[in-house]
Amino acid sequence: MRRAFSGELVDAGAVTELCTEALRAPTAGHSRGVFLTVTNDVSGFFEAATDSHWRETSRRFRDLAGAGAIVVVTCSPTIYAERYQAADKSDERLTNPDTWPVPYWIGDAGMATMALLLLVEEAALHATFWGAFRHDDRVRQFADVPADEIIYGYVLIGHGAPDTPSASLSREGLTRAQRVRRLAR
């Protein structure tokens, strides 16, 4: 993940192509309820997604604002519930998004996001995932996100600039090897 961008323009058509390819990621029941909205209006995005206090005090804002494009990743629980009402998937437990034991629309949005992040790197660009935990209502209006869609997060894409690694990287915790479990049977 890159959290510093040079401010250099990114070809909008190339980003749209990357997004189209990223949507090859699987969706439960082939529901296709994940959407990627591309904008090159980076300043407008940050105006909607943050407030002036954050922009003035954040040590990361200036570096993030150099992105050349923003992709708003959304998903629609309604589309998934409708898909699981079809004869080939009919399951009464899954006709209401509130009754799903696992909200697959969230997992599918994550898969499309990961595919996009990998494709961006393959295209010799840089990206970061930015969580949707601020001002969803303003971003929803800015990006014309329909009311039935959930904002999953944002992918910032651009040409990289020197980056300061996140302090989180020095955080102690379980290693990768400790997080991979193998059954002995």
The count of DSSP E runs of length 2 or more, i.e. the number of strands, is 4
- CATH classification, class level: Alpha Beta
Main beta sheet: 4 strands, antiparallel
Which structural category do the helix and sheet elements fall into? alpha+beta
Hey, roughly how much beta strand do the residues contain?
A: 15-25%
Mean pLDDT: 93
First-to-last CA distance: 37 Å
Q: How many distinct domains?
A: 1
Strand order of the largest sheet: 1-2-4-3
Output the radius of gyration. 18 Å
Q: At the third CATH level, what is the topology name?
A: NADH Oxidase
Shape: globular
Task: List low-confidence stretches.
Answer: none
CATH architecture: 3-Layer(aba) Sandwich
Give the count of helical stretches.
8
CATH superfamily: NADH Oxidase
Helix share, percent: 25-40%
Series of secondary-structure elements, N-terminal to C-terminal:
HEHHHEHHEHEH
Task: Describe it.
The protein is α+β, with helices and mostly antiparallel strands and 185 residues long. The chain has a single domain (12-179), classed as NADH Oxidase, CATH 3.40.109. Helix content is 36%, strand content 15%. It has 8 helices and 4 strands, in the order H-E-H-H-H-E-H-H-E-H-E-H. The chain has a 4-stranded antiparallel sheet with strand order 1-2-4-3, covered by helices on one side. Helix 1 (12-22) packs across helix 6 (104-122) and helix 2 runs antiparallel to helix 7 (136-142). The chain starts with 11 loop residues before the first helix and ends in a 6-residue tail after the last helix.
